[in-house]
Amino acid sequence: MKLRLAVGVLWMLILLTSTFTGFAEEQHRKTKRPNVVVMLSDDQGWGDFGFQGNRNFQTPNLDHLCDTGALFNRFYVCPVCAPTRAEYLTGRYHPRGSTVGVTQGDERLDLDEITIADRFLSAGYKTAAFGKWHNGSQYPYHPNGRGFEEFYGFCSGHWGDYFSPPLEKNGTPITGNGYVTNDFMQHALEFIRHHRHENFFCYIAFNTPHTPMQVPDEFMDKVRSRELPMRHNDRLNESEELEMTRAAIAMVENIDENVGRLLETLKELNLSEDTIVVYFNDNGPNSFRWNAGMKGRKGSLDEGGIRSPLLVRWPREIAPGKRIEQLCGAIDLVPTLCDLVGIPIEPNPDHRLDGINLANHLKSPNEPTHSRPLFSHWSGRIAMREGAYLLDAEGKLFDVLNDLGQHSDLSEQLPQQAESMKEAVNRWREDVLKSAKPRRPFLIGHQSRPKSLLPAQDGKCSGPSVVRSNTAPNCSYFTKLKTPEDRCRWEVEILNEGTYTLQLQMTVPADALGKSIQVKIGDKRCEGVLSESFTSEPYGSSNDRVTRKTESLMKRFASIQIGTISLEPGIGDLEVALVEPLENSAGVELQGVELQKTSSPPKDIP
Q1: Preceding amide of 209 cis, omega within 30
Q2: Binning pLDDT at 50, 70 and 90, where does residue 500 land?
Q3: I want to staple 43 with a disulfide (CB 3.0 to 4.6 A). Which of 212, 286, 322, 489 is the partner?
Q4: CA 206, CA 203: separation in Å to the nearest integer?
Q5: pTM (2 decimals)?
Q6: For residue 23, what pLDDT is reported?
Q7: To 5 degrees, how large is the angle CA 142–CA 493–CA 129?
Q8: Chain centroid to CA 375
Q9: Beta-bridge partner residues of 506
Q10: How far apart are CA 376 and CA 421, in angstroms?
Q11: Which fold has domain 442-599?
Q12: Which sign does the torsion angle of CA 559, 561, 562, 565 carry?
């Protein structure tokens, strides 16, 4: 009898403990801030989804994300990669942070800008970014200096090989593991698992379907003979390359599988209800393919160049299948996500946000659309959207709600609307375009990162022989350095006085042995003799599904130490050049310059 009573009491305690634990966990879940996962694809078009009605694509996981969350139908980004990333990170138009290009330093985001990761980190979130960064490489432009505690990926605008390429982890070189999209997602899932009991902000920046068009066989095999009923409209003799389309489909379907891995992991960890999942593209498609008849593609300010779906899922707060017509853009993500998780944004007149808060559109069942202007810029050209209207970069007016292809210019029929928008564009030009800083040297010797790398993509070259390995600077290297007049140059700022070890990432043919090479910074010089030969063959093209046009192939380089140099704080040009010419030679090749701060000047003893 006593034994039965004891057993009964024990079971009652277990039941009460379990009930209390479950209640406590539920209360914790209700009071805990939601996690956030933001996924950004590269060169995917508005129409590259099954949920957009494109029957060429099979994207069940992205379709499910759309069906179980909200879809913004009128969401706009920038015509190219880096500016979109800057607007998403800051909530401000990209020229305000001097992100006015995609390479040679113009892709960097000014250091006084506050990023979304800065805000989440300050609020106690664990923060990480995986994939393509494209907003600066030298610390503190590096993601680790912009609020992301963890980074795994590459900082360039694009990469030359997608299978186990050279990457980095928090500034340390590392070799990737398999296909990059799978690899980036794997690291993101490990981060989520590790921090599942904490608040986390996870940014996954896929670098696909950007060229070069590379994808595992299993995805390409599915589309080799697939019927493609949805075709580009061939406007203005813009022809669709079907092999490019098939490769893009395969790459997007690989992304879709990885989105499925993410959603399944959140479900497995019981995090689905408490995680806001966001997905959007960085610009229009990188080839002419079906895009609902919109005019333009990547690089254009027209509808097809900058329109993207925005998917936002948060089962606890956002009704499934919600469709939102509010005109909005990448600049709106900072105020919206901060509001959703309860992070206040203090007014800052020196760095005011351009974005608006879309949280009510997500949570309220009948939030009306609000009139607001939305400006787009690239290379000095400006377009504006307001209500149903688009004022394009040539000053033509279109009703893009009823004329996606921009066939009918309404500027003569609606002169007051056209003139009002032109005046707004001029005011925006005066306010925003003057924000960009004209001169931002590359930083060397930051106290938090004693090693600084100046990659060829950031530099410039001049001389009778030297050229880039391809026309697109990203992921390129300098080749055919043969004479002292061939120069590779970076404008740099030395942050801290000290002695720096210089290494050059080079290939050295046998006929260059014994020749001297020089690094000059201002009036300081360091000269070394090329004493070891190293050559390698370009690689990466064996994985291409479509012949690449502008992306450089990759190559292996040796790190050759040439000596040390004593530097003082200041700004100047760093130049690399041969001291004597190479006769009858293909020349040396240079991928980058590495400076490692090894000592500081002795302090005065009073």
Answers
A1: yes
A2: very high
A3: 286
A4: 10
A5: 0.93
A6: 46
A7: 0
A8: 21
A9: 558, 590
A10: 13
A11: Jelly Rolls (2.60.120)
A12: positive
Can you spell out the DSSP letters for 326-342?
A: --EEGGGHHHHHHHHHT
| pLDDT tens digit sequence for 83-130 | 999 999 999 999 999 999 999 999 999 999 999 999 999 999 999 999
347: buried, middle or exposed (CB in 10 Å: 19+, 13-18, 0-12)? exposed
What's phi and psi for 467, nearest 5 deg? -145, 170
Neighbours of 192 (CB within 10 A): 21
Architecture of domain 32-227+245-367: 3-Layer(aba) Sandwich (3.40)
The SS3 of residue 108 is coil
Question: Are the C-beta atoms of residues 280 and 309 closer than 8 Å to each other?
Answer: yes
Which residue, chain included where needed, has tokens 């300010």?
Answer: 301
Contacts 24+ apart (CB under 8 A), 366-369: 367/326, 369/325, 369/326, 369/327
Tokens, residue 451: 């090693």
Residue 599, pLDDT score: 76
Average pLDDT over residues 129-154: 97
Q: How far apart are CA 258 and CA 498, in angstroms?
A: 46
Q: Tell me the angle at which helices 242-268 and 60-67 cross, rounded to the nearest 10 degrees.
A: 60
Cα–Cα distance measured from residue 589 to residue 360, given in angstroms and rounded to the nearest whole number: 55
Backbone angles phi, psi at 60, to 5 degrees: -60, -35
Taking alpha carbons only, the member of 499, 497, 490, 510 closest to residue 588 is: 510
| Across 18-39, average pLDDT | 66
How many beta carbons lie within 10 A of that of residue 110, not counting itself?
19
Tokens of 54: 């494109």
* Residue 323: alpha-carbon gap to chain centroid: 26
Nearest Cα to 76, choosing from 390, 352, 421, 505? 390
Q: Which helix (H) or strand (E) holds 24?
A: helix 2-31
CA separation for the pair 399, 402 (Å, rounded): 6
| Pairing of β 381-386 and β 442-444 | unpaired
pLDDT at 18 exceeding the cut of 70: no
Nearest residue to 502 (alpha-carbon basis) of 448, 559, 424: 559
